[in-house]
Structures are given as C-alpha cells and as structure tokens.
Design a protein that fits this description.
With 146 residues, this protein is mostly beta strands. The chain is built from one helix and twelve strands; from the N terminus they run αββββββββββββ.
Length: 146
C-alpha cells in the first residue's frame, strides 16, 4: 500500500480551493439560449431566491420603456453580504456568460433601484434574472422571469 504525503504546497492548494466557498456555478453563453416565447410584452416580473448558501429576497421587474429595457428591483429587495455582486441574466439555473451589466455596491444590497440594460442585451432571450459573484464565479440568487 502506498502512502500520500501532504506536502506544504499540497495543503496550501487544498486550502485555497476550499476558501472560495462553493464550487463555481455553471455558465452558458447567450448563444446557447433559445429566444423566450412572446409572453414578454412590456416586461416580466420574478421573485428572488438565494442559492449557494446566500440570502437574496424581493422582486425584480424587467420593463420595456420608450428608451429601452430596465431592471427594476423592488423596495423589498435584499442581498446578504456577498462579495463582487453583479446583475445579469441566465437560464435553467446557469449564469449566461457576458450578461452581467451592473456591479452592486454594498449600499445597493437593499431597497428599490433601477438600472437601464445595455442596448445590445435582449432580456427576452433568458428565463432568469441572476445575481452573480464575478470573483468566485458563483450564483448568489435567481429569479424566474420567463
């Protein structure tokens, strides 16, 4: 029987892997997502659920206005003390790579707020609005919108 020695380098590597929290979440590209049905006329609304041991609550409404699409977080919105949180889109529980469009400062972790989506980001292609930790590639919360 052979024995595996835990060298200082191996111990440090194992510690670094576990310090980041859960395994990275699955990501997909926007091209892998089929266009959502036309139930989107004027917008969509969803309720957040926290994932990966994070607490996220409140509502999100995606509204179409004369000058484009907006993400509107309700006054009931809250996010726990997660690092490097971005707003974005996904589908089927996976973040759609490249859809993050707004970094949330800590003071933005609660309450009503709204953000204009970039003109080249079509929310009707997705069935979830997500809060994504860019630093650790982990979903923090999702809301079904499609």
């Amino acid at each position: 029987m052979s024995k595996t020695l835990l060298t200082p380098a191996l111990i440090a590597a194992l510690a670094a892997m576990t310090a980041c929290g859960p395994e990275p979440s699955e990501t997909i590209t926007a091209d892998e997502i089929a266009a959502a049905p036309s139930a989107w006329e004027g917008g969509a609304t969803g309720t957040f659920t926290g994932v990966n041991s994070h607490e996220v609550a409140g509502t999100i409404t995606i509204e179409q206005r004369a000058d484009g699409w907006y993400a509107v977080l309700g006054d009931d919105f809250s996010l726990d003390d997660a690092p490097d949180a971005y707003l974005g889109f996904g589908s089927g529980g996976a973040y759609a790579d490249g859809t993050n469009f707004e970094f949330l400062e800590k003071e933005d972790y609660t309450g009503a707020q709204e953000y204009k989506l970039p003109d080249d980001l079509d929310p009707t292609k997705f069935d979830q609005f997500v809060i994504w930790c860019k630093e650790f590639s982990v979903l923090l919360g999702t809301a079904d919108i499609g």
